[in-house]
Amino acid sequence: MSFDTILAEVGSFGPFQGVLVALAVIPRIVLPCNFLLNNFIAAVPSHRCRIGPWDSSADLGDETSCQILAANDSGETPTTGCRYGWIYDNSTFSSTIATEWDLVCDWKHLPQTTNTIFFLGLTLGSVVFGVLSDNYGRKWSLLISYVLSLTFGLASASAKSYVVFAVLRFLSGAALAGLSLISITLCVEWVDSSHRASMCIIGSLTWSLGNMLLGAFAFFINDWRPLVVAVTTPLAFGILTWWWVPESARWLLTNGDAEKAKFYLDRCARLNNRPKLSKVQMEALSDMETSDKDQKYTFLHLFQTPKLRKISLITGIAWYGTAVTYYGISLNLGGFGLNLYLTHFVYAAVEVPAKLLLSVLINRIGRRPCLVSTLVLTGTCIGLNILVPRDLWHVRSAVAVLGKGLSEASFTTIYLYTTELYPTVLRQNGMGFTSVMSRVGVSMAPLVLLLDNVWTLLPQILLCAGAVFCGLVALWLPETLHVRLPETVGDVERARCGKGEEDVPLKTSVTT
Fold it and tell me: How far apart are CA 213 and CA 228, in angstroms?
């Protein structure tokens, strides 16, 4: 008897799973609010040198932003730095970290560096929480993520110097990695194969919702410190409701704790109005305990067996390509002639239709075709914009928006696909590894765009080729549509894996 059979008896998609979504997925709204927060808190408004201590005029005039004239006895008019500081245009932002600590002129690189520091923290956190979650459980790791994210987030809002703020943003990124990795995986492990896509789509839609809310928050709160507080405090909901979040029964069984797994399965049955597990089912549940329950897993185990190694290499490439393409398009899209806040809102809103369409296709044609097609079509959109003349701006904008929607669809697909490819004992380590590859892609996107100094079309050509290549590489992953989740490394190795090969049902026990 498989775990999915037991889950079907207690309810694989009912009120219990609905409560789980509310408790574990809704707090994900804070993720885009923090991932894209730098667009607002690190904005550098127009500014000019303050002429003297007495100068308080808000008129920017024609003064230069980094130098002022310094008269001398020789009659020459040399220039000097802004010794009295700067005056900023506060019409859009009343305060940002750039205006707070004068991060302009010689220090103009520091506001955007904060974003890189945040994603470096996210990369480290992906590794740490991947190991913690697979070895000590999803539930406790999620609580650690909630508490640390709230603590470091609120602390960063009260930072007295840029260095302290940067360190706290790094730690915030590391802490938020746990929420990013665990919440969807936990939900996917509590549903059957026919509803895994629904869980992932719901989680992805919370990203879009949070992204749109960030634009609204930033519009009404144009001071960076209160804005940081506003996008951080929703994590308190996660902490207050954490007690009701169930541990993954799949994880408990693979770690030899059938009694606690039964506790959560009985809770699932009660909320779903199903009978509790019978004695026979309980005995079957005990038989599912794996022989490697005392094994502690790390990233190295992702590459120790042939098929798991193949999956890890290909998913790593696919995640890198998906991330560099998505952020490359996002950073290179021109606005719609709207203000900053409305543009941000529109760019977030255009992702919703793509995800709703994907929710239909992913259960009809499969995960692999969806991932391959969305990546290849994203590359095609980028390639088309290379050919479309620049004076046809409306056509270029439409193609660019279509490409952005497709790239977000590829992100949603690969998130679900990855959770289904890795076994329960290594699922969070696998998600951590692919998250690291994704962050490398995020870091590379701005560097790719800088290559327009070498040749104007070079960034678009590289993004186009990268998206198409990574999409074609994904052809060599096994399809997971209607295939139950693997529990152990042995499950993965026994299943046939490769392009065009038929997947076979995975066994429950493992023999090594």
Answer: 13
